Amino acid sequence: MTPVEFLVAAQPSRTQRSTLVLPNTLLRRALACLLLGVGALLAPFQRSAHAETPPAQTPPAQNRIIPGPLEDLGREYKVRLVYFVPKDREIKKDYREKIEVLMRVVHDIYDRDFKAKGYNTRGLDFEFDEDGKLKVHLIRARHNAEHYTGNPPTSDRLFNSTSNEMVATIGYPAHRACLVFSEAGGIAEATPAIPFCGVAMVSADMLRDEITASTIEKQIENMFDETPVKKADGESSEPRNRATQISNGVLMHELGHIFFMIHDQRDQRNIMAYGYHNLRLMFDKKTALSQPVRFSEDHARIAAATRFFSETIDEEDGEGPQGELKFLTPPQPGDTQVKFSFTASDNVGLKAVIYRESTLDTIIGGESLSGKTFERRGIFPRPIALTPGQLLHYMIYLLDENGNVALIQKDYRVPAEAQP
Ligand SMILES: [Zn+2]
After folding, report:
1. Fewer CB atoms inside 10 A, N or C side of the chain?
2. What is the pLDDT of residues 191-205, one digit of tens each?
3. Residue 348 C-alpha to ligand 1 middle, in angstroms?
4. What is the distance in A from the centroid of ligand 1 to the CA of 29?
């Protein structure tokens, strides 16, 4: 196959982070969002507020869009909902109804976005009880909250200890995207679905009456209601619509990480940036059609190709694709672009790829693939020239036609001095 020249779209200028993201346990950190409770989530959001955002006006009720009920699609690959309550914490009233309301919103946003982009999918599927009700696994945990958070609390400890007890209690989540509402502490983290199961964990603070309703009509109303409500700390307050949009939005963002959607900061309308601050705009008929809150094309393509969305999977194909990233010339201090080649192959057919550079905390490109082999030579631009000794970490998700994935990573330290 002839290599095609390729320039990955330039980044908006952003402050570079100095953190190196390494494989293994730190892969999850690459997907980590903010490790604090919903109340504390607000600080970074305030920093990235956008001047062009329309004010949260209350539209007439007839202009609202109300997400429909969830139904069992009979898919093999489903979302599993888990409510994890440590021994010293209380079960919140109406948790099941509230989680169903939250997931109706999430399903609706994914569904409208992927359909608007032309993907053949009925959207996310969920587990249901024998009586036809949405299934929420209530886990009355064995220990007090501090056992899970650690003291001092760390997100790694909370994520791992909760995941382990979940598996020990209700079994290994094969073919499941697990969404865990934790009463133990503040968290918003996720692992990608490798192999075909992943975990997203959020704080169950969002199940408070103040910000999550037990009916869908009231939940949509909450997104437009500016009445001040107490934050989780019980002291300071915030507008209800802000807390509701962010908490319901965090769910779809964290689930997105399971489906290989990493952060995409190229457009702040993206759900995999902070686009979900303005979730209400998708439930007002006057604004929804322009998709003011969205997944990027590169992200939707890769998620729609997973087994959690695709309608054309051959499960007999268990062989993942192969890929290799090379630098055409070793990156040097002062370089404003990185020349690369990427080759890929699959036994059946390639489907999609996204490219990420971890120190920028965003994907930097992606494309649709076809055929059994692929070769790309191109340029990853750098918004800021490379500095001596800085680290680069490229991360590529490659999907085949049957939802098998490969993660290709490449670490590189820029030399202290330019090489002759
Ligand atoms: Zn995130």
Report:
1. C
2. 999 989 999 999 999
3. 31
4. 9
